[in-house]
Amino acid sequence: MITTADEALLRRAIAIAARAVELGDAPYGSLLAGPDGAILTEAHNTVQRDNDIAAHPELKLARWAARELDTGTAAGTTMYTSCQPCGMCGGGIVRSGIGRVVYALSTEQLVELNPSGAWPTVPQDGPALFDEARAPIDAYYSPS
Hints:
- With 144 residues, the chain is an alpha+beta fold.
- The chain has helices at residues 4-22, 47-50, 57-68, 71-75, 87-96, 107-113, 130-141; strands at 29-33, 39-44, 78-83, 100-105.
């Protein structure tokens, strides 16, 4: 359930996205708030400026949380973001231990506003070579 406090922080994420546009960057902004609602860090999309396909604000914040916060603290944080995180960012968020995400626009809404923003699919084949592929996994997780 989204609260009035959530809405205020979500409005800040939207303002970060608007500022990104003023700076010539893509219109996406995010912030990470602690359990008390205090803003810990903010970021906006810098994919074009940095020539870095991973420079999404959600992934920047997830990486920051993983580096700077202990597990318990990260679990108590909430990410507020102007748009629903993409698959890449979602994976980073899960691995970072961030406890919750609140977003303004869904992926479907974003695609309605910007039809060229839909992510293409890439064909994938597999699984294959199970016995060979499991050897380094076994060596890492079951050292002798």
